[in-house]
Design brief:
The complex is a heterotrimer of chains A (about 230), B (about 280) and C (about 220). Chain B has about 280 residues and is α/β, with parallel strands linked by helices. Chain B has ten helices and twelve strands. In chain B, helix 3 crosses helix 9. Chain C has about 220 residues and is mostly helical. The chains are: A mainly alpha (about 230), B alpha/beta (about 280), C mainly alpha (about 220).
């Protein structure tokens, strides 16, 4: 038992610092990813093929290949083309691209979830376009967007563990550093898994609160709220 | 909210108790057992040219040639698993294989936990850089640089980490030590400019410079020369002695020197004793 | 920087061999994941309070932590509880334990989508329990589960790249070995990305076909 406790005492500061980095990388990537996603989602819904097709193929490519392969490509291949960056920026780039593709689908789904007739009806009763967006369309979109986004945010955090393979010093890498000294992988990986679990469970709980707060009774009729990914 | 916390605590308790389960108490494996099974299971990280690497879908290299000769002398079948380096020693502890035949630097941390065979090679650890890069000119001054090494528990990386602690005391330590999953990634990372220097043994560096001419150059060596050997579980010292016997035969017949010529381009002195760090198993 | 896609011609047989292993590993994991999912679901529906709590904790853990870490935990945990198996099977077990959690949620989602009134109506017509299950509930569950199951299969196929860290020589690990030998990351990783893409895209097309084919059995 003594050795178990000393392992925790030795490992925890290293793992917590790694988890801090994970949260930092993920937050930056998700902000970048979301901004990109708004643009890509609009392009994806555009009637012009020049905009629609590249956006569509980007999303398909990201969604149909493993994150790990994307990470290898960005990390090892792009620098060979003369684009050089540190492990951390490579990690942020690949995670942002990944997040943007999945966020795009959430945003697109949210836009499509509101029937076109709603806007037409609002305009017909004399509501200006902007107010119709704010009062009618946007609240309904949020009803779809927030739960979908919760899933993707948690997905991005979970996927980011693979960044350790391309040398990013995040939580899973911290576990490997601990292992180099402790040689006790089961305990170390369970500890880091528990840290991830606390993070994702907290995010799910917060997002659920936000959903209830923001949507309240304004939640659009007929829009079923999917359950968040974790309890 | 309180229910949520109870769940988390339950999870924590589960995790810790699962951790406590970890204790392996298998009996010792020896040559007699291997011979009666007709098979020896060996773990190798086949991404460490010229010691062990994959070519045309098969594991080849210096260690592999030595291993093949030992296994042939024993008259048993070889089952060789290609394992990622990060878990290679743990896999040995857990009995996934009985011998780790991968170039391992004999450092005190490892020697205290595992039984090393006699050395199969001797090498210095060095820092390598991109050819012509003047950001790094001496191993004495790594200020502001990021130096890469294979992921712990890599020998060269632990040499670098200790060395860097000493440098830091004089204010000339590296900014960052970056962990790569293996040498191929490490060398690619250096060539690509993701790091300023890479640490490895000279034997591996020589091979990398041969494979990628005009890409790398050596900055300098750090620390004393290290012996390189294989390991078995600490309880299996008898098996270790059986391996040593075969390595010694190969050395005395001149076969080992021939293999060193083949893979490294020169041969080296392999001592009979005195190679292990103090407190070794 | 010059490209040499000739290296892909050299690598392709090995990569395809790796892809075959990726596919069979994923298939095996799904086949094992379905009974795991059914077991979890039944336990969640009819188990005692303790079992139900344990199962929902398990599901939350499986879905709330990185698969990457789960694979490593399973890989290192199995031998220490006396199960000494090759890394291929450790990978299959880790993947199926993970997907079991998702599958049980799918089954739950599928069941709640079937209107209660149908079963009440069948009971009112004095249909035996078994027949209700076979004629009414099961076909609908199947129709509801099959499309998400193929989606799960695709997700698992992509996620299976992670088992390269425990040394299963599947597609990704094969690619790493070839990159190590050839120093040609761009060509190899593009080729590997395309192989995954073709597999996943084909599965996506299959999903859409199944969705259309089973639409008639789905409750409205």
């Amino acid at each position: 038992m003594d050795t178990e406790l000393s392992l925790v005492a030795y490992a925890m500061p290293i793992l917590l610092k790694g988890m801090g980095n994970t949260l930092f990388f993920c937050s930056i990537s998700m902000v970048i990813g979301f901004v990109l996603a708004v643009g890509i989602a609009l392009a994806r819904l555009s009637r012009r093929a020049v905009l629609r097709l590249p956006a569509q193929w980007f999303v398909e490519l990201i969604r149909n290949t493993p994150f790990l392969v994307q990470a290898f490509l960005v990390f090892f291949a792009l620098p060979k083309l003369g684009i050089r960056f540190s492990a951390t920026s490579a990690g942020i780039i690949v995670l942002s691209l990944y997040a943007s593709a999945y966020f795009t689908e959430a945003i697109r789904g949210a836009i499509l979830s509101v029937p076109r007739g709603q806007m037409e009806a609002a305009r017909a009763v004399g509501m200006p376009h902007f107010r119709a967006m704010r009062r009618i369309i946007f609240p309904q979109m949020l009803g779809y967007l927030l739960p979908a986004l919760t899933n993707q945010v948690i997905g991005v955090i979970k996927e980011s563990a693979a960044l350790s393979i391309i040398t990013v010093p995040e939580a899973a890498m911290a576990a490997q550093v601990v292992l180099g000294v402790s040689f006790s992988p089961v305990e170390t990986y369970i500890m880091v898994a528990l840290l991830y679990w606390m993070v994702t469970a907290t995010i799910a709980a917060i997002m659920l609160k936000v959903e209830r707060r923001v949507l309240g009774s304004r939640s659009a009729p007929g829009v079923a709220l999917p359950k968040p990914a974790t309890s | 909210m309180s229910a949520g916390w109870r769940l988390k605590l339950a999870g924590l308790a589960f995790g810790l108790s699962a951790g406590l389960l970890l204790s392996v108490g298998a009996g010792a494996t020896d040559l007699a057992e291997i011979k009666s099974n007709g098979k020896v299971t060996v773990g190798t990280e086949a991404a460490y040219a010229p010691f062990e690497f994959v070519e045309d879908g098969k594991i080849v290299g210096y260690d592999k040639d030595v291993l093949d000769r030992i296994v042939a002398a024993w008259g048993v079948e070889l089952e060789q698993l290609d394992v990622p380096f990060a878990g290679i020693l743990t896999g040995l502890d857990q009995g996934k294989y009985d011998i780790v035949s991968t170039a391992l630097i004999m450092n005190p941390e490892r020697a205290a936990k595992y039984a090393f065979t006699m050395p199969v090679a001797v090498a210095q650890v060095a820092i390598m850089k991109r050819k012509g890069d003047d950001k790094i000119t001496s191993v004495e001054d790594l200020t502001g640089l990021s130096i890469g090494g294979p992921v712990p528990p890599s020998g060269p990386t632990s040499v670098l980490t200790n060395y860097n602690e000493e440098l830091k005391a004089t204010g000339k330590g590296a900014d960052q030590i970056v962990h790569f999953q293996g040498d191929p990634e490490l060398f690619l990372g250096l060539a690509n400019g993701q790091i300023d220097g890479a640490v490895e043994t000279m034997l591996v560096i020589n091979e990398a410079m041969k494979k990628q001419p005009d890409t790398f150059e050596v900055v300098g060596t750090i620390g004393e020369p290290f012996y390189i050997g294989w390991v078995v579980r600490p309880a299996d010292t008898a098996l270790r002695d059986s391996i040593n016997e075969e390595i010694r035969k190969l050395r005395d017949s001149g076969e080992l020197a021939k293999l060193q010529e083949k893979w490294f381009g020169f041969s080296m002195e392999i001592p009979d004793s005195g190679y292990l760090p103090p407190n070794a198993k | 920087m010059t490209f040499d896609f000739g290296v892909v011609v050299y690598a392709l047989p090995y990569l395809l061999e790796g892809a075959k292993l990726t596919l069979s590993m994923t298939l095996l994991a799904i086949l094992l994941g379905v009974p795991v999912g059914i077991g979890l679901f039944i336990g969640l529906q009819s188990g005692g309070a303790v079992l139900r709590k344990a199962i929902s904790l398990y599901i939350s853990f499986a879905r709330g932590t990185p698969l990457f870490i789960q694979i490593l935990v399973v890989y290192y945990l199995l031998p220490s509880i006396g199960l000494d198996i090759p890394s291929f099977f450790a990978a299959v077990i880790a993947l199926s334990l993970n997907s079991g959690a998702y599958i049980s949620e799918m089954i739950r989602g599928g069941l709640t989508a079937i209107p209660k009134g149908q079963i009440e109506a069948a009971r009112a017509l004095a249909m035996p329990r078994r027949l209700i299950w076979r004629r009414i509930t099961l076909p609908q569950i199947f129709a509801l589960i099959l499309p998400p199951l193929t989606v799960e299969f695709t997700a698992l196929l992509k996620a299976s790249a992670l088992v390269s860290v425990i040394g299963v020589i599947e597609l990704t690990r094969t690619a790493q070995q070839i990159v190590a030998a050839t120093f040609r990351p761009i060509e190899i990783w593009i080729a590997v990305g395309l192989i995954y893409f073709v597999m996943c895209y084909a599965l996506g097309a299959l999903t859409r076909r199944i969705e259309r084919g089973t639409a008639v059995y789905r409750p409205h």
